[in-house]
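Give me structure tokens for this 192-residue protein.
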Amino acid sequence: MAEAYIVEAVRTAGGRRGGRLAGWHPADMAGEVLNALVERTGIDPKAIDPDDPELLVRAAECRLRLGDPMRAIVMAKKARRHEQVRADCLDVLARAHLDLGEHGRAMDLANSLMSGFPDDPRGLHLRGRASLAHGNAGAAARDLERYVRQRPGDPSGYGDLARALVALGERERAAAQERIGAYVAQGSEASR
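Here you go.
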């Protein structure tokens, strides 16, 4: 992969809740920032490859965070044929299908991630979330316990594990996982 350099910095305008920017979609605002960057730097926009697999995966991730799982799926599927980003694509696709309530499809994608990339713990997290959404709290707890052991710095894993434990009636263990997750989150925020 080519090296990237920061050549210019641009930010969005500041606003207030319900203010003059309230009607702007975050993607449109980001587009304005990108247009300003292109204008300031003189970069030829045609030099940016819209089919770059890494760019597509990052764009899919952004779409997912903006609450647009359908567009995230389209972008991730387009990038999926490139082996160097296949695990990231499977991750985005599984999370998008979870957001859409398509738990079986999310489970299939999580299993594909686990079989194709056995050292990547994201598959455990996704399979645990899909199991929990499908009503199988026991399987979810097993996968999520393995996930937090492999990725102890991810606070979301502890929250998901706590939800699985609550579903199993293990409220004390769930509360302990919530406390650990809050502690981990506090530590990750302090390190920023």
